[in-house]
C-alpha cells in the first residue's frame, strides 16, 4: 500500500476496487505529479488520480468522497489557466468513455460527452455546415466538459453564443449522487420530487434577487459583458423554473456544484465565405471609438485589438503587411477584423459596410479585406503569435500568466491605457495586451517569477491594483472568459459586493454543504489563496525549458492516456532534475526514476507532432531521444549502413520464411515472448510479404530521380501481394510523361532514418552522405527533381538537407507534393471509389505535405473520411517493439470509420501496417490508389 496516502485517501482508494479498474487508479509519485499539472501557474499534487470512464464510476467516486470525507476535483483537458483543475486530494480525469458525440436534427443540435475535444465536435458538424458556439483559443485541445464548466467563449463567440446561451439539454450528477437529465421527462419529474427542497431554495433566492431591484439591474448589466467571475447568478433572473436555474448555474461553475456528464448544444452556421483585414490606427482613442461603432450592428464576426507593445513584439513576422512593421508610437493600435457570409456576394457587401464604418475614424493604414485563405491565416497568425512572443523569450524560471478582464466598451481605451500603466508601475515591462474588442475583453500576458517573497509580493500588489481598477473603478469583469479559479477567487467579493457574494456562498452551500467539490475554487475564505501553491518552473533542459505546461501538445501525442503526454514528460523531468540538484526527497527521486524510462522515454514516438501544436514549438521527442542515450552498438549500426543492400535482402528472406512458417502462429508466439522478455518484437498478424525486385526502367520523357526507400524495397504493397510501391509509382510517372531513373547503387542506399532513431549518429550521417552523392549524380547536380516515396524518409532527407548533409541544389519532393503538383495535372481521374479513409502521417504534417495528400485522396473518392489521429504511434519500429503505443493511438480509428468504408490510404509504409491492423480496412499507398484511378 502506498504510504503517501492519508488514512482517509487510503480508505477511499480501497473502496474503489472492483468499481474502477486498478489500471485507471493512480497513487504513485510519477502519475500523481504528471496528472496533477494543468495550464495554470499553480501546482498541487493529488493523493489519488482516477481516469473515470462512465457515470457509474463517477457516482461511486462521489459516494466514496462523502463516506471518507475527501475532496474531489474534475479535470477535462487541463488547459485551464486559473487553477481550477488542480487538487491535493482526489483528481478525476475524464477517460475515453466520455468522448462521444451525436449529431441531431441534421446538425441543428449536437449532444456531447464532456470528454469530446471542442474541435472534434466541430469536425462532426462540418458536413452540415454548422459549429458549436463556444470558440476558445484552446478549442483544438479543450474538452467540452471544461468549455461548459468554465463558460468559455472566444474570439467570435461573444456573450450570445457561449455554453450558457446555446445549451438545450444537460445531464448532471450532484454531490449526493442525484442525476438530472433535462432531455428525459421522467428524470426531470423524479428530480423535482427528490430534490424539492433544493429547487425551493433556488426559487426563494430568485425571488430575493428580483426584489432587490438595484442588484438585479447590476447583475443584468454585468452579464451584458463577458463575465465568468463567481457563479452565474443571472440564471436566477433569466429563468422562472428552478430546474432551468440549476442547469444554467452549472455552466461556469468549474466543477464546484456537480459533474456535467452530457450536454446538448444548439449549433450555429459555419459560413464558408470569410474575409479578414488588418487595420492600423495611430491613436488608441480613435481605434476604440471605431470598435464601438462596429459593435453597433456592423456585420463583423470577430474584432481583435492588438496594442502597441504587441505590435512591436511581432514585428518582422513573415507575411505581415509592411505598415505594421513600421508602426511606432504608444498610440499605435491595430484591429484584426473577420466577417463571414453564406455566399461571396453577401461577403462583399459586408466588407464594404465595415470599411464605410471604419472610414469615419480615419485609420492610418489598412490591408483591405482578403478572402485568400493563406493570407487570412497569416493575419490571424499575428494574433496567435502574441502568446509565444512572450513565452519564448521569458527569463528562465519564470512562468507565463495570461489573465483576461472586461471593461464596459465605452471605457475600452481607458482600460488599455490604465492596464499598460500598471504593467510599468509593477515592473512587468514584457507584458503584452490584446483582446476581443467587441466585448471590451482584454487579455494580458506577462512573465512573473515566484522564486522570492519579493516576487510574490510584487505579483500580489499588481493583482490588487488590477482588481481595484477593473472591478472597483469601472465595474467590469475580473474574469471575462477564463474562469474564476484560484487566482481570482479571493477577489470575487470585491467585484460583486457583499450581498451578491453571500448569495453565491449560499448557492455553494446548497449544492455542496460539505465542501467536497473543488474546494476554494470560486468561493474561498482565504484572501491569500492566489499566492499559495505557486508553480515552480526549474530549469531542466534547454530543449524544454520554455514549456509553460499549457497542454496544447496532448491531442497530437499517441502515448497520451497510455503512459505520459509531452507536457507530463516535461513536468516529471523538471522534478527529477530539481531533486537531483537539491538532494531533497531521495525516496521520491528513486520512485520517479524507476518509472520514467518506460513511461516517458520508451513509449515516446519521438515524431515531433507535439511541436506542431506547441505555442513555442517544443519538440519533447528530442529530449526523450537525448535521454535514451547513444546507440549501444554503434559499430554494428555503421556496418549495417555500409551494407544496406545485404540488410534488405536478409529482411526479405526473413519475410519469406515467416510466411512459409505461418504468420498467425508466429504472431501468437512473438506476442507471448514479448510479454516475458522486453525488447522482443511482435510480428503483426497482417505482416506484409517481401517486395519483388525493383522494376526495370524504360521509355523517354522528363527525367525524375526515383528514390525508393529501404522499407518500400523490403515490404510489398498491401498485405497479400508482392508488388512493390515502385511498380505503381513508375507506372504513374511514365503515364504522366516522366522518365524515372534510379540513383546508382540504389539497393545499398538509405536515408539514415533507422540509425537516427537508434541514436547511431555516425551511421545516420554516413548514410545521408552516401545518398547525397548518389542523388547528385543521378540528378545531374540538381538539374532534375528527386522523388522520395516514403513520407518519414522524405522528412529525414529534407532535415539532412537543412543540416547541410544533403546538397542544397537537390530539388527534393515528397510523394504527395510531386504527385499533386507535377503528375495529377497530366492525368484524368477515370474511376472514383465511394468512401476513402485518409491518414496523414506525422512526417507529412511536419513537411507541410498534408494538404497535398488530402487533395490527391479527395480526387479519388466520393467521400473522404479523415479521422483526427495526428500520429498513429507506429513510429518506425515501435509498432513492433512497443505495439501498445500503436494500439492505443488507433483505438478511435475503427469507430470513426463508416461501416461502408473499405479503403484507406496513407504515404508511410509502416503506418499502413498499423492502420490496416487496427481498423479492419486495407490501407494502401497514395501511388497505388492513383494508379488505379487515373488514365493519361
UniProtKB/TrEMBL annotation:
Any Pfam family? FAD_binding_4
Gene3D superfamilies assigned: 3.30.465.10, 3.30.70.2740, Alpha-helical ferredoxin, Uridine Diphospho-n-acetylenolpyruvylglucosamine Reductase, domain 2, Vanillyl-alcohol Oxidase, Chain A, domain 4
Source organism superkingdom: Bacteria
Q: Name one GO molecular function term.
A: D-lactate dehydrogenase (NAD+) activity
Q: Which SUPFAM superfamilies match?
A: alpha-helical ferredoxin, FAD-binding/transporter-associated domain-like, FAD-linked oxidases, C-terminal domain
EC number(s) on record? 1.1.2.4
Question: What is the name attached to this protein's record?
Answer: D-lactate dehydrogenase (cytochrome)
Amino acid at each position: 500500500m502506498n504510504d503517501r496516502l492519508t488514512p482517509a485517501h487510503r480508505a477511499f482508494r480501497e473502496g474503489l476496487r472492483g468499481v474502477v479498474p486498478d489500471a485507471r487508479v493512480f497513487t504513485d509519485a510519477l502519475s500523481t505529479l504528471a496528472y496533477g499539472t494543468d495550464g495554470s501557474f499553480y501546482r498541487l499534487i493529488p493523493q489519488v488520480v482516477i481516469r473515470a470512464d462512465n457515470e457509474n464510476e463517477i457516482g461511486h467516486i462521489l459516494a466514496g468522497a462523502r463516506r471518507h470525507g475527501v475532496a474531489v476535483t474534475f479535470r477535462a483537458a487541463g488547459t485551464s489557466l486559473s487553477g481550477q483543475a488542480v487538487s491535493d486530494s482526489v483528481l478525476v480525469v475524464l477517460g475515453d468513455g466520455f468522448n462521444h458525440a451525436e449529431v441531431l436534427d441534421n446538425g441543428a443540435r449536437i449532444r456531447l460527452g464532456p470528454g469530446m475535444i471542442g474541435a472534434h465536435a466541430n469536425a462532426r458538424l462540418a458536413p452540415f455546415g454548422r459549429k458549436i458556439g463556444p470558440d476558445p483559443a484552446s478549442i483544438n485541445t479543450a474538452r467540452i466538459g471544461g468549455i461548459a464548466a468554465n463558460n468559455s467563449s472566444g474570439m467570435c463567440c461573444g456573450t450570445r453564443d457561449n455554453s450558457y446561451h446555446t445549451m438545450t439539454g444537460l445531464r448532471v450528477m450532484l454531490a449526493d449522487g442525484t442525476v438530472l437529465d433535462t432531455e428525459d421527462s421522467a428524470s426531470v419529474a423524479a428530480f423535482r420530487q427528490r430534490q424539492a427542497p433544493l429547487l425551493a431554495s433556488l426559487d426563494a433566492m430568485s425571488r430575493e434577487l428580483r426584489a432587490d431591484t438595484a442588484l438585479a439591474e447590476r447583475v443584468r448589466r454585468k452579464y451584458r459583458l463577458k463575465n465568468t467571475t463567481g457563479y452565474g447568478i443571472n440564471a436566477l433572473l433569466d429563468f422562472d423554473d428552478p430546474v432551468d436555474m440549476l442547469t444554467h448555474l452549472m455552466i461556469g461553475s468549474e466543477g464546484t456544484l456537480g459533474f456535467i456528464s452530457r450536454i446538448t448544444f444548439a449549433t450555429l452556421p459555419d459560413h464558408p465565405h470569410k474575409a479578414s483585414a488588418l487595420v492600423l490606427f495611430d491613436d488608441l482613442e480613435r481605434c476604440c471609438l471605431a470598435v464601438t461603432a462596429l459593435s453597433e450592428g456592423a456585420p463583423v464576426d470577430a474584432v481583435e485589438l492588438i496594442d502597441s507593445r504587441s505590435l512591436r513584439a511581432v514585428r518582422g513576422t513573415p507575411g505581415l503587411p509592411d505598415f505594421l512593421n513600421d508602426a511606432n508610437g504608444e498610440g499605435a493600435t491595430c484591429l484584426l477584423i473577420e466577417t463571414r457570409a453564406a455566399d461571396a456576394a453577401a461577403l462583399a457587401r459586408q466588407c464594404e459596410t465595415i470599411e464605410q464604418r471604419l472610414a469615419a475614424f480615419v485609420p492610418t493604414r489598412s490591408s483591405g479585406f482578403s478572402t485568400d485563405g493563406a493570407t487570412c491565416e497569416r493575419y490571424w497568425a499575428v494574433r496567435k503569435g502574441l502568446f509565444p512572443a512572450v513565452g519564448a523569450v521569458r527569463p528562465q524560471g519564470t512562468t507565463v500568466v495570461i489573465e483576461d478582464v472586461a471593461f464596459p466598451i465605452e471605457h475600452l481605451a481607458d482600460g488599455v491605457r490604465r492596464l499598460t500603466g500598471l504593467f510599468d508601475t509593477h515592473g512587468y515591462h514584457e507584458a503584452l495586451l490584446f483582446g476581443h474588442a467587441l466585448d471590451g475583453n482584454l487579455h494580458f500576458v506577462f512573465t512573473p517569477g515566484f522564486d522570492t517573497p519579493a516576487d510574490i509580493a510584487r505579483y500580489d500588489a499588481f493583482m490588487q491594483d488590477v482588481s481595484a481598477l477593473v472591478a472597483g473603478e469601472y465595474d467590469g469583469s475580473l474574469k471575462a472568459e477564463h474562469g474564476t479559479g484560484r487566482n481570482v477567487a479571493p477577489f470575487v467579493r470585491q467585484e460583486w459586493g457583499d450581498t451578491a457574494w453571500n448569495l453565491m456562498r449560499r448557492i455553494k452551500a446548497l449544492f455542496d454543504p460539505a465542501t467536497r467539490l473543488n474546494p476554494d475554487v470560486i468561493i474561498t475564505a482565504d484572501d491569500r489563496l492566489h499566492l499559495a501553491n505557486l508553480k515552480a518552473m526549474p530549469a531542466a533542459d534547454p530543449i524544454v525549458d520554455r514549456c509553460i505546461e499549457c497542454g496544447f501538445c496532448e491531442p497530437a501525442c499517441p502515448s497520451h492516456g497510455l503512459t505520459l503526454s509531452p507536457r507530463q514528460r516535461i513536468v516529471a523531468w523538471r522534478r527529477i532534475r530539481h531533486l537531483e540538484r537539491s538532494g531533497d526527497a531521495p525516496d521520491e527521486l528513486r520512485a520517479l526514476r524507476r518509472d520514467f524510462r518506460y513511461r516517458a522515454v520508451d513509449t515516446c514516438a519521438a515524431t515531433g507532432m507535439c511541436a506542431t501544436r506547441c505555442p513555442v514549438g517544443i519538440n519533447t521527442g528530442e529530449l526523450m531521444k537525448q535521454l535514451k542515450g547513444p546507440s549501444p552498438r554503434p559499430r554494428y549500426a555503421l556496418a549495417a549502413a555500409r551494407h544496406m543492400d545485404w540488410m534488405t535482402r536478409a529482411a526479405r528472406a526473413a519475410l519469406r520464411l515467416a510466411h512459409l512458417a505461418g504468420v498467425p502462429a508466429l504472431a501468437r508466439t512473438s506476442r507471448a515472448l514479448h510479454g516475458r522478455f522486453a525488447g522482443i518484437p511482435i510480428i503483426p498478424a497482417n505482416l506484409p510479404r517481401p517486395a519483388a525486385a525493383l522494376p526495370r526502367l524504360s521509355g523517354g520523357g522528363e527525367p525524375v530521380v526515383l528514390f525508393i526507400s529501404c522499407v518500400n524495397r523490403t515490404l510489398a504493397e498491401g498485405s497479400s501481394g508482392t508488388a512493390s510501391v515502385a511498380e505503381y509509382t513508375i507506372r504513374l510517372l511514365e503515364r504522366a510523361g516522366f522518365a524515372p531513373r534510379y540513383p546508382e547503387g540504389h539497393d545499398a542506399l538509405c536515408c539514415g532514418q533507422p540509425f537516427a532513431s537508434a541514436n547511431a549518429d555516425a551511421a545516420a550521417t554516413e548514410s545521408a552522405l552516401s545518398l547525397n552523392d548518389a542523388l547528385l549524380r543521378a540528378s545531374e547536380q540538381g538539374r532534375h527533381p528527386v522523388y522520395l516515396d516514403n513520407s518519414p524518409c522524405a522528412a529525414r532527407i529534407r532535415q539532412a538537407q537543412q543540416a547541410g548533409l544533403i546538397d542544397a541544389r537537390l530539388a527534393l519532393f515528397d510523394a504527395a507534393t510531386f504527385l499533386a503538383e507535377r503528375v495529377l495535372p497530366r492525368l484524368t481521374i477515370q474511376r472514383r471509389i465511394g468512401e476513402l479513409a485518409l491518414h496523414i502521417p506525422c512526417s507529412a504534417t511536419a513537411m507541410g505535405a498534408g494538404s497535398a495528400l488530402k487533395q490527391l485522396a479527395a480526387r479519388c473518392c466520393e467521400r473522404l473520411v479523415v479521422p483526427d489521429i495526428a500520429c498513429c504511434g507506429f513510429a518506425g519500429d515501435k509498432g513492433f517493439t512497443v505495439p501498445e503505443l500503436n494500439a492505443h493511438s488507433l483505438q478511435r480509428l475503427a469507430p470513426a470509420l463508416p461501416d461502408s468504408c473499405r479503403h484507406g490510404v496513407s504515404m508511410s509504409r509502416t503506418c499502413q501496417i498499423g492502420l490496416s491492423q487496427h481498423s479492419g480496412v486495407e490501407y494502401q499507398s497514395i501511388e497505388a490508389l492513383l494508379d488505379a484511378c487515373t488514365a493519361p
